[in-house]
Automatic annotation (TrEMBL):
<dbReference type="InterPro" id="IPR055089">
    <property type="entry name" value="COP9_N"/>
</dbReference>
<dbReference type="GO" id="GO:0008180">
    <property type="term" value="C:COP9 signalosome"/>
</dbReference>
<dbReference type="Pfam" id="PF22788">
    <property type="entry name" value="COP9_hel_rpt"/>
</dbReference>
<keyword id="KW-0963">Cytoplasm</keyword>
<dbReference type="GO" id="GO:0006511">
    <property type="term" value="P:ubiquitin-dependent protein catabolic process"/>
</dbReference>
<dbReference type="InterPro" id="IPR050756">
    <property type="entry name" value="CSN3"/>
</dbReference>
<feature type="domain" description="COP9 signalosome complex subunit 3 N-terminal helical repeats">
    <location>
        <begin position="20"/>
        <end position="235"/>
    </location>
</feature>
<protein>
    <submittedName>
        <fullName>Cop9 signalosome complex subunit 3</fullName>
    </submittedName>
</protein>
Length: 235
């Protein structure tokens, strides 16, 4: 592998046109292996040499490698790391991060876990809301980040913030679990807002969505559905 300095220079020099980004992506995929991960602890200072918007693809690769190390998170997880990730999720280029969606989702998941560990869910709301919009190819697409975003809103009791993700018409679903969690957390947010008909609608979707076997999310959604039905309809 080239030196980290050389890799950062490539990122700085090849983040312009589509052709340049394609070449950079090829270089990053070649570098993304055991050798780069062996140097993950040294990556944090190099991120300061990159602009999260202009150099989003390269920034994402380095950030994801850094965030994949438990030792790195133990050393930096609660401080500068969260600030760096929050800034990246808010300001990154959607076109660039969609070139490596799995890495973007990994970074979002680590960010959510770190915020949860610190018991500060409100810190996750704005960055994850931005992340949803960045990774979506259309407003009809359900992403794994939707559920994490709604969970942050729910835990922080910022129910109105969750409406930005619940008011879209969702038709494009990749993973069934994402839909179950979206409907369950969404139903809970509507309960928090005392919008019981909307809550019933989403909880009903969680209960009746096709599933290969009974899952814990559907069971919990059914329990909430029964309780809300009693509140709303007296039955």
């Amino acid at each position: 592998m080239e030196s980290l300095e050389a890799l950062v220079a490539h990122i700085q020099g090849l983040s312009g046109s589509g052709e340049e980004l394609a070449h950079l992506h090829s270089l990053l995929k070649q570098a993304d292996g055991e050798s780069l991960r062996a140097h993950s602890a040294a990556l944090l200072p190099f991120l300061s040499e990159l602009d999260p918007n202009t150099h989003s693809l390269g920034f994402l690769y380095l950030l994801e490698v850094f965030a994949s190390s438990t030792a790195n998170l133990r050393a930096h997880g609660g401080g500068d790391f969260l600030v760096i990730v929050a800034d990246f999720l808010t300001s990154c280029s959607a076109d660039q991060i969609r070139m490596a969606p799995d890495k973007f989702l990994n970074v979002c998941k680590v960010f959510k876990n770190e915020v949860m560990q610190l018991n500060t869910p409100i810190r996750g709301i704005a960055p994850l809301r931005a992340a949803v919009r960045k990774i979506q190819t259309s407003s009809e697409q359900l992403t794994p980040i939707h559920a994490d975003y709604l969970l942050m809103c729910l835990l922080a009791k910022q129910y109105k913030a969750g409406l930005s993700a619940l008011e879209d018409d969702i038709f494009d679903v990749d993973q069934p679990k994402d839909l179950f969690l979206y409907c369950y957390y969404g139903g809970m947010i509507y309960i928090g807002l005392k919008k019981f008909p909307k809550a019933l609608e989403l909880l009903h979707n969680a209960v009746t969505a096709p599933m290969s076997s009974l899952n814990a999310i559907a069971v919990e959604a059914y329990r909430k559905y029964v309780l809300v039905s009693l509140i709303q309809n007296g039955q």
